[in-house]
Design goal:
This protein is α/β, with parallel strands linked by helices. About 40% of the residues lie in helices and about 20% in strands. The strands form 2 sheets. A 6-stranded mixed beta sheet has the order 2-1-3-10-4-11, sandwiched between helices. α6 links the parallel β6 and β7. It starts with a helix and ends in a 5-residue tail after the last helix.
């Protein structure tokens, strides 16, 4: 009788245990807002939306794209910090955001975020117009020396990533030039096509579908398969410019729930191995990578220190 009673009690307890709701539901249990710091249609926006598409191959989670442009990414970054750090709001970030944070000083701090995953690495390059007389690297250097600092290079912002790249290039090549900023990369490239500047600092993907633009110098160890005629800086005799990149990745609030962080870590590692994602990223000559929080933060801090140094040379920082 006692044995039957004990078995009955155990059966009741087991029934109660199996029907108890877990203390913490498995993440995610509602849609995730994927915030994009640019307006719709740009490369960052296209990248984020493709990431959402590929994520569907590996998770049933729902992602909702939200464009929140303004102030070079500061509007979106502030919105992330104001949101509840439960993991349901993530932010697409690019290297350009670092320069913006540095120039605005205390508006947003890099330490306010977990730099969750770096997913794309794209080489910086010098772009010229084939319609202009000066379009090869050798011609660019000769023209710069002849003009003694009056040669015009263009890009999307003063003190931004591309401006810093231009300054590094001038130093390494032993030339001087003038930087003229435009509101967007599209406007800057139009200026080169129109002969209002001789060089645009950007990335290989910028010239896709633009036959009148060419890569005069590429910041990589080796040439790109997608752009076999684009010479590297090393081939052109310029040392120290073999790994200048524009990266894209994901950041979240520094207090984000650990369960959410684990979910994203596993998901993004799967995405970076997905053939669909690799093909998408590689089409423009970029590399699909995965650097987790520790390595990504190291890269971000290096970018920060470099930006501070060059912005001080420009007189944009004290």
């Amino acid at each position: 009788m006692k044995k039957i009673t004990l078995l009955l009690v155990m059966a009741i307890c087991l029934s109660l245990i199996t029907n108890i709701e877990p203390a913490f539901a498995k993440f995610p249990e509602k849609p995730i807002t994927f915030m994009i710091y640019t307006a719709p249609g740009g490369l960052a926006d296209i990248t984020a939306r493709k990431l959402i598409d590929v994520a569907a191959n590996h998770t049933d989670a729902t992602f909702v794209a939200l464009n929140n442009p303004g102030a070079g990414g500061l509007v979106a970054m502030k919105a992330i910090l104001q949101a509840k750090p439960d993991g349901y709001t993530i932010l697409l970030v690019t290297q350009s955001n670092i320069e913006k944070v540095v120039t605005t000083k205390d508006a947003v701090k890099l330490e306010d975020f977990i730099w969750l995953a770096m997913l794309v690495s794209e080489a910086e390059c010098i772009i010229t117009s084939t319609a202009q007389e000066v379009n090869t690297w050798e011609q660019l250097v000769a023209d710069a020396k002849a003009k003694e600092g009056k040669q015009v290079w263009v890009g999307p912002a003063a003190g931004g990533r591309d401006h810093v790249m231009a300054m590094k290039t001038w130093e390494k090549a032993g030339i001087q030039a003038k930087w003229v900023p435009f509101e967007s990369g599209g406007q800057a490239m139009a200026a080169v096509l129109g002969g209002h500047g001789v060089a645009y600092v950007g990335n290989p993907s910028d010239i896709l579908g633009k036959p009148d633009l060419k890569i005069a110098a590429l910041s990589r160890e080796t040439r790109l398969e997608q752009f076999p005629d684009a010479p590297t800086f090393k081939e052109l005799g310029v040392e120290g410019l073999d790994n200048e990149i524009m990266w894209r990745g994901i950041a979240v609030h520094k207090d984000t729930d650990p369960e959410a962080l684990q979910f994203y870590s596993e998901l993004f590692q799967k995405i970076t191995q997905d053939p669909e994602w690799i093909k998408f990223v590689g089409a423009g000559g970029a590399d699909a990578v995965y650097y987790g929080p520790e390595k990504f933060l190291e890269i971000v801090k290096e970018n920060e220190q470099e930006s501070i140094a060059y912005l001080k040379k420009l007189g944009l920082l004290e």
